[in-house]
Design a protein that fits this description.
The protein has two helices and twelve strands. By secondary structure, it is mainly β. It folds into two domains: 38 residues; 141 residues, Jelly Rolls. Strands 5, 7, 8, 9, 10 and 12 form a six-stranded antiparallel sheet that branches. The chain has a four-stranded mixed sheet with strand order 3-2-1-4. Bound molecules: calcium ion (CA). The site of calcium ion (CA) has 8 residues, from loops. Calcium ion binds next to loops.
């Protein structure tokens, strides 16, 4: 367990004495018990806002979403909620995409992508590409492409050089084992 700085965690139990807190650590993937004095550093059920959410980021386009797993759920700071492409009334396959818009320019050195954290790997993204646009319409060539391993840990897409923009497009190119779905618990930007 890392005790330094805020931890993104889900509180599992507050013990009867009120002297300790049991929590699940999304970074270390462990269950730990800490005294309440240390638990003050735990951020329950939330991811710290980074450059995107600080700039009012929202999803303005998603190619598909299942009701209850709307696109905005990957920008709500809650690691337990997610965007998930449709599976009930339609089953569209890859590629999938999200277009993100912010209220003002942000300088982005890359993206941090948190896969769904509920123990189910449906929709985990294996390969993706990141674009930026001056106007939200023309995207050009991808600024970065990335291939991820099949784990629940946070993934990073790193740009060769930081970009200043209000419009980002994440294309999920493929998943694992030929799955048609994409899902994502949280998106944030890597600051310059
Ligand atoms: Ca979420």
């Amino acid at each position: 367990m890392g005790a330094d700085g805020p931890r993104v965690a889900r509180i599992l139990d507050v013990r009867g004495t009120g002297l300790s807190v049991e929590y699940y650590d999304y970074t270390d993937k462990t269950v730990a018990t800490v005294p309440t004095s240390a638990a003050a550093k735990i951020v329950p059920r939330s991811c710290p806002a980074g450059p995107l959410r600080q700039a009012g980021a929202r999803i303005v386009r998603a190619d598909s979403a299942e009701p209850g797993n709307e696109p905005g759920r990957c920008l709500d700071g809650d690691p337990e909620t997610m965007w998930h492409t449709a599976w009930t009334n339609a089953l569209p396959g890859y590629p999938h995409e999200l277009v993100i818009e912010t209220d003002r320019d942000v300088v982005v050195a890359g993206l941090r992508l948190l896969p769904r954290q509920d123990g189910n790997w449906n929709g985990w993204i294996a390969k993706c590409a990141l674009y930026a646009s001056p106007d939200g319409k023309s995207w050009g060539a991808p600024l970065a492409e990335a291939v991820f391993d099949r784990t629940a840990s946070e993934k990073t897409v790193t740009l060769k050089a930081p970009v200043r923009t209000r419009h980002l497009r994440l294309v999920a190119v493929s998943g694992f084992d030929g799955q048609p779905w994409a899902s994502l618990a949280e998106i944030e930007a890597v600051a310059e």
